[in-house]
């Protein structure tokens, strides 16, 4: 291969890109044609609908994004005299020969993992640089000659340092070995990734979802993959990544949306909210529910035409005891008891009449008044709403689970007249979900990815555990970024509540977002955060940090505006992050100055400036971050220092910190 003639080489690669694009178009056209003829070829309407859905999905998956080339790398295997292009999806020519290999294919793994020490049969690894879907350069590592670039790759550096505008992008072209190990972990493995800001946790979680969907397509299409994020702004920010990777059927949700089975009509005082997230709520609900089961005291007597059936107290007690011991969800247990009672009636009838009773007879017996009355006494029907209403109306029913003070904290001042008229709060939805999980089994997802997991409360973790009972989880987070009042300081606690105590806790340490100087500033806060986490090592030597003291507080907003205007002279996104209470005021200033701005959930076509309340900035990133009065951010909440740590680590290139009040002590220059 002539390595001297780089232009010829690049133009050969461009030709391959063109032919691959044309081949993908043909694949799409074929799928489209099948889609339109689907109705005619399918035997019946059900098959037609299934086929139609499958083809519609296939057509969507085969969409070509003109802004990204179909491949980003190439592997040469000299021994086989073969070269494979690696891209976002498989592309085959008309004869079915691969033109581009999906990044998730087994062979592609070497693109991310091969090294001089372990070349995996690869002689040369090539990475492509591109601008707007066109190949502009390439970079070769001749592993067989001991050449390896690692993180000094020019193309990797350019990718990391590119300005950020709009929603999050995939990282398939540059996944690093420590990330790849997590992305390709087995479906059976639950893992917990602890990583400093910008180490690629979110990216890893999304790519793992895409990888698992590729490898276990049929299974996960049935059982589904769920991504849980902290808020809707964050979910909009990440929403484009999986579709770009061809995965269009993943459910993304916040925990609140996941458990939202009733409308929220009330608020809670802080103390009540905190208690409602405490794991003792689960115990209370469990106790109160199972206290409703009681020992039968009366026999069942049923008149059935000319016959009379009787079941004595003893066998009834046995049935109830046995069903309790089986550990079934409550409502399932109730039906089990009903079925066994009807079974006894059936046996009596068979004995007396010599015939097997008909199905209608069995149905009638299972609904007949004496059977229902027995059940209502021994194993009464319960709804999640009625159980939660009982708990919040009479917390003493939970026995000694709560102290007197705690009971008063959650007790409804004015109990609702009926269960239907109950006004539930956001935290009550978790209780309803817990109650529903005690009554019936939740459907489990095949895999659940939870981002910003350090903020999960025990009750939230349990809600996720119910939805991943038969699946695995990828937990992503950073203990230092825990801002919820119940945020954990030990991953083992959350993993236990999630029902995955055996999951490995794996660190990610290389930071791809925050420049070194900015990381150094944020790291000053770490000792004050009370968590034991490794510091990030930033790959970025570029970037700027300025800490600007504004002596007169009345000048602070104006000075912030000046900083915004200066930031606009650079490329990329600009965020003003401030305590929530200052946000409206700052937005009004920008309006008055004629500067267009967005809110963080406006990811499609946002203005270059976004004003973000500190409490909503988790997981997001902007090229230039302007932090307005850090002390106000810290003072706004109990975990204010953790919040500030999150805020300071959002900057991709430049960070300006503007303050009139003294900086928080933990941040002050030593
Ligand atoms: N291997 C990589 N190649 C290129 N860019 C990467 C890589 N890994 C991560 N990034 C980029 O670094 C930035 C931070 O990644 P991500 O948001 O996943 O980090 P995080 O660990 O979830 O951060 P935080 O804790 O702040 O939420 C993103 O812009 C992401 O695209």
Features:
binds adenosine-5'-triphosphate, 26 helices, 670 residues, Rossmann fold, alpha/beta, 6-stranded parallel β-sheet, 4 domains, 6-stranded mixed β-sheet
Q: What is the topology?
A:
Elements lengths: L5 H36 L3 H17 L9 E7 L4 E6 L3 E2 L5 E5 L6 H5 L10 E8 L2 E9 L11 H8 L15 H7 L7 E5 L5 H15 L1 H7 L1 E4 L3 H7 L2 H4 L6 E3 L1 H4 L11 H7 L3 H11 L9 E5 L2 E5 L1 H13 L4 H24 L5 H9 L1 H10 L5 H10 L10 H7 L15 H14 L7 E4 L7 H9 L5 E6 L13 H7 L6 E5 L1 E2 L4 H8 L13 E2 L5 E6 L6 H12 L6 E5 L4 H10 L4 E2 L10 E5 L8 E7 L1 H6 L4 H9 L2 E9 L11
Parallel strand pairs: 2-4, 7-13, 7-14, 8-9, 8-12, 12-13, 15-16, 17-22, 18-20, 18-21, 19-20, 21-22
Antiparallel strand pairs: 1-2, 1-5, 3-4, 5-6, 10-11
Bound molecules: adenosine-5'-triphosphate (ATP).
The site of adenosine-5'-triphosphate (ATP) has 22 residues, from helix 4 and helix 6.
């Amino acid at each position: 291969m002539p390595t001297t003639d780089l232009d010829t080489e690049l133009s050969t690669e461009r030709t391959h890109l063109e032919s691959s694009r044309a081949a993908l178009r043909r694949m799409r056209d074929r799928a489209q044609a099948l889609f339109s003829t689907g109705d005619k070829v399918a035997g019946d309407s059900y098959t037609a609908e299934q086929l139609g859905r499958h083809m519609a999905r296939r057509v969507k998956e085969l969409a070509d994004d003109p802004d990204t080339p179909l491949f980003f790398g190439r592997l040469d295997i000299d021994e086989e005299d073969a070269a494979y292009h690696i891209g976002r999806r498989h592309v085959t020519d008309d004869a079915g020969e691969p033109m581009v290999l999906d990044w998730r294919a087994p062979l592609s793994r070497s693109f991310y993992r091969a090294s001089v020490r372990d070349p995996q049969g690869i002689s040369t690894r090539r990475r492509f640089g591109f601008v707007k879907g066109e190949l502009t350069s390439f970079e070769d590592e001749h592993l067989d000659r001991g050449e390896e670039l690692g993180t000094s790759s020019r193309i990797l550096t350019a990718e990391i340092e590119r300005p950020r505008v709009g929603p999050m992008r995939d990282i398939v072209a540059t996944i690093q070995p420590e990330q790849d190990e997590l992305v390709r972990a087995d479906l059976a493995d639950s893992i917990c990734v602890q990583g400093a800001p910008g180490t690629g946790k979110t990216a890893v979680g999304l790519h793992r979802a895409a990888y698992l969907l590729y490898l276990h397509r049929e299974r996960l299409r049935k059982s589904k993959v769920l991504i849980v994020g902290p808020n809707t702004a964050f979910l909009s920010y990440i929403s484009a990544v999986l579709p770009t990777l061809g995965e269009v059927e993943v459910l993304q949700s916040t925990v609140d949306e996941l458990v939202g089975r009733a409308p929220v009509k009330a608020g809670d005082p802080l103390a009540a909210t905190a208690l409602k997230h405490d794991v003792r709520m689960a115990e209370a609900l469990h106790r109160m529910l199972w206290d409703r089961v009681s020992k039968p005291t009366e026999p069942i007597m049923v008149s059935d035409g000319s016959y009379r059936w009787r079941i004595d107290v003893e066998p009834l007690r046995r049935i109830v005891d046995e069903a309790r011991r089986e550990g079934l969800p409550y409502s399932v247990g109730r039906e089990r008891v009903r079925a066994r009672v009807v079974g006894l009636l059936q046996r009596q009838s068979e004995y007396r009449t010599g015939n097997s009773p008909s199905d209608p007879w069995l149905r009638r017996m299972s609904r007949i008044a004496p059977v229902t009355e027995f059940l209502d006494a021994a194993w009464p029907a319960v709804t999640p709403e009625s159980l939660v209403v009982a708990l919040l109306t009479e917390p003493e029913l939970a026995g000694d689970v709560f102290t007197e003070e705690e009971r008063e904290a959650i007790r409804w001042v004015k109990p609702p007249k009926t269960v239907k008229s109950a006004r539930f709060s956001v935290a009550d939805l978790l209780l309803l979900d817990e109650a529903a999980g005690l009554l019936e089994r939740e459907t489990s997802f095949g895999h659940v990815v939870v981002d910003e997991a350090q903020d999960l409360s025990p009750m939230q973790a349990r809600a996720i555990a119910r939805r991943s009972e038969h699946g695995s989880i990828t937990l992503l987070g950073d203990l230092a970024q825990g801002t919820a009042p119940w945020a954990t300081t030990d991953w083992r606690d959350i993993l236990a509540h999630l029902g995955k105590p055996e999951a490995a806790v794996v660190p990610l340490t290389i930071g791809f977002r925050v420049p070194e100087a900015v990381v150094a500033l944020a790291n000053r806060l770490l000792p004050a955060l009370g968590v034991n986490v490794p510091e990030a090592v930033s790959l970025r030597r570029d970037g700027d940090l300025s800490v600007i003291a504004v002596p007169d507080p009345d000048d602070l907003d104006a000075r912030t505006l000046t900083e915004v205007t200066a930031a606009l002279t650079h490329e990329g996104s600009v965020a003003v992050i401030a305590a929530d209470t200052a946000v409206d005021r700052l937005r009004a200033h920008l309006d008055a100055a004629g500067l267009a701005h967005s809110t963080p959930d406006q990811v499609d076509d946002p203005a270059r400036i976004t004003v973000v309340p500190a409490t909503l900035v988790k997981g997001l990133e902007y090229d230039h971050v302007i932090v307005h009065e850090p002390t106000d951010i810290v003072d706004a909440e109990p975990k204010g220092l953790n919040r500030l740590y999150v805020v300071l680590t959002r900057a991709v290139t430049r960070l300006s910190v503007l303050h009139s009040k003294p900086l928080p002590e933990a941040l002050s220059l030593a």
